[in-house]
Each structure stands twice: as C-alpha cells, then as structure tokens.
Amino acid sequence: MNEQGFYFIAVLVVLFAVIGLFSYQTAVYNNHIESSSAKVEGLKQQGNKTLVKPFLEEVLVFLSSDRTDEHEFQEDSFDCEYFTRMLIKNASRNGLDAYSVIIKWEDMFLGHNIVGFDTRDAGMVFVEPQSDEVIDISPGSEYLGKIIQEYHVCKE
C-alpha cells in the first residue's frame, strides 16, 4: 500500500470515529432531555403521551364532560373495576394522570375499585367512577354502607 492509500484509510477511520462519537453524544443528549422532561413537576410520560398532574378544577371539568358514569352496572361484565379502567383511560386520553384505587372493606374479603387523581392543589382526590362523586375514603369511614378498613393507590 502506498503512502497516499494509508492516509486515505487513516482519514476514513478518523471520520467514522468522529461520526460515531457525534451519534453517541446526540443519543445520550436526547435520552437526557427525555428523562429530564419527565421529572418536571406535574408531568408523567405514558407511552407517547405526557400526562399532567391536574388541578382539582381540571378534574371536575373533565368529570362533567366524561360519560363513564352513564353506563349501567352489570355484575359480571361492567362492574366497578371496568368503570375504573374506563374512567382512567378517558382521563389519560384527555392528558390527565389518574390511578386505580382499591378499597378493602372491614370484615369482608371483597373490595371496591374507584379512581384517584393526585392533584396539584388538593392532594389525592377520590372519585366514584359510577357516579362522578368525589368521596372520602378514610380508613374507618363508611362508604356504600360498609366500613373502609384500608385502601391502596395503584400507581403503576
């Protein structure tokens, strides 16, 4: 190989190294931007969509237009779990972050599902998806004629 061929190969190697380094740095930068934006207060990434930690007023406006509560309860096909999943899906489609909440009744094996919105101004707000009613589910309180032993917010 002559000297000119050697320099040509050396230039190509350096060029590919620079392009590779640039591509790597760009990927790292883009990944950092994506992960940093998810840490912004009140934002959460879900797939391609950014969900907002809403204000209470935003939740109430959403509930007034959502039609989940207009469905009829059916024991084995459209129960509290289905209402909860539907309301969460609709909230997500509207950019609002919402969670499934499981209520455990005192002295009972079965429980109940509702929706929780972790709001910026009122903390966790609990909603009965079958009626859009904002409810109190403090342990020891009564709801639907039963005493609440505990509840769990399912954040993932």
Q: Could you please describe the fold and organization of this structure?
A:
The protein has 156 residues and is α+β, with helices and mostly antiparallel strands. The protein folds into two domains: 1-37; 43-154, 2-Layer Sandwich (Beta Polymerase, domain 2), CATH 3.30.460. Helix content is 38%, strand content 28%. It has three helices and eight strands; from the N terminus they run αββααββββββ. It has helices at residues 3-37, 56-65, 80-93, and strands at 43-46, 49-52, 99-105, 111-119, 123-128, 133-135, 142-143, 146-154. It has a six-stranded antiparallel β-sheet, covered by helices on one side. Strands 1-2 form a two-stranded antiparallel ribbon. Strand 5 and strand 6 form a beta hairpin. The longest helix is centred in the N-terminal third of the chain and has 35 residues, at 3-37. The protein starts with a helix and ends with a strand.
Key features of this structure:
156 residues, alpha+beta, Beta Polymerase, domain 2, 2 domains, 6-stranded antiparallel beta sheet
Write the layout of secondary structure elements.
Blueprint: H1 3-37, E1 43-46, E2 49-52, H2 56-65, H3 80-93, E3 99-105, E4 111-119, E5 123-128, E6 133-135, E7 142-143, E8 146-154
Antiparallel strand pairs: 1-2, 3-4, 3-8, 4-5, 5-6, 7-8
Please give a quick description of this structure.
This protein has 156 residues and is of the alpha+beta class. It has helices spanning 3-37, 56-65, 80-93; strands at 43-46, 49-52, 99-105, 111-119, 123-128, 133-135, 142-143, 146-154. The strands form two sheets. A six-stranded antiparallel beta sheet has the order 6-5-4-3-8-7, with helices on one face. It has a two-stranded antiparallel ribbon with strand order 1-2.
